[in-house]
Design a protein that fits this description.
Oligomer: single chain
Distance between the termini: 17 Å
Strand order of the largest sheet: 1-4-5-6-7-8-9
Radius of gyration: 17 Å
Largest sheet: 7 strands, parallel
Number of strands: 11
Structural class: alpha/beta
Helix content: 10-25%
Shape: globular
Length: 246
């Protein structure tokens, strides 16, 4: 539920004014949001481009939810979808940004795989200081998403290298403020290599970039734990509200 505390280690709550999606790259193959949506019968067809008109849903009735949450929270926007999906009208994205601007006691984290749409609409949006913008990068093929992110005037720009499916040595960390990395979970999880993670951790340290290791992954999200090189990495951007991490 949108008001429940999130089990995602790097946030505190979720807010889903948009739900549903369609797959665009290898990181989408075993989408946890699709699995949950099918389990609870929110959607019934595969999250493919052929079914996106059915699966991508706007929820105007949820727009005001963060305004009713009095205690400041770090909120992941659209954990069950993608705000920058092509089927989400610009007018609705603007409505979401208006709420985030008004609810300035919260921090809002947005994550997308649709870097081209993000780059297209970013100049038309009012980017308040409490909005963090991120892109997913699962392997070198999709390091280009970071190039689009660099042009976005967000207070914090971050990379989610999860599920990490290959080395990302081509990823340019210039202009990036935070990096999350992790393996895949679920019955069909694809293994992550320690060397890929160590390389990212080392590059973040060299660049003075906060590094957050979310999980090794496995059959369940917590199966492999969170220790990398014997340490639990839970670094966050410098100016952020304290997180009650799980």
């Amino acid at each position: 539920m949108p008001t429940a505390r999130s089990a995602i280690e790097w946030t505190e709550a979720t807010w889903n004014p948009v739900t549903g999606c369609s797959k665009v790259s290898p990181g989408c193959a075993h989408c946890y949001a699709e699995t949950l949506s099918h389990r609870f019968r929110v959607t019934r067809t595969p999250w493919t481009s052929e079914n996106e008109s059915e699966n991508v849903q706007l929820h105007p009735n949820r727009l005001q939810q963060p305004l009713r949450w009095r205690k400041p929270r770090v909120i992941f926007v659209n954990s069950m979808g993608d705000l920058f999906h092509e089927r989400v009208p610009l007018e609705f994205i603007v409505d979401v940004f208006d709420v985030m601007h008004e609810a300035d006691r919260h921090v809002f984290q947005i994550l997308t795989k649709r870097h081209e749409r993000l780059a297209e609409v970013a100049p038309t949006l009012d980017w308040p200081q409490n909005v963090w913008m991120g892109v997913s990068v699962e392997n070198n093929r999709w390091a280009v998403r970071a190039d689009a992110l660099r042009g976005v005037p967000a207070a914090v720009r971050f990379i989610s290298a999860e599920p990490l499916l290959g080395p990302v040595d081509a990823l340019d960390l210039t202009g990036i403020d935070w990096l999350i990395a992790g393996g895949e979970s679920g019955h069909k999880h694809r293994p992550v290599e320690e060397e890929w993670l160590i390389d990212l951790r080392n590059r973040c340290q060299q660049a003075g970039l906060p590094f957050f290791f979310k999980q090794w992954g496995g059959r369940t999200p917590k199966a492999g734990g969170r220790l990398l090189d014997g340490t639990e990495w839970s670094e966050m951007p410098p100016a952020h509200p304290p997180l009650a991490l799980a």
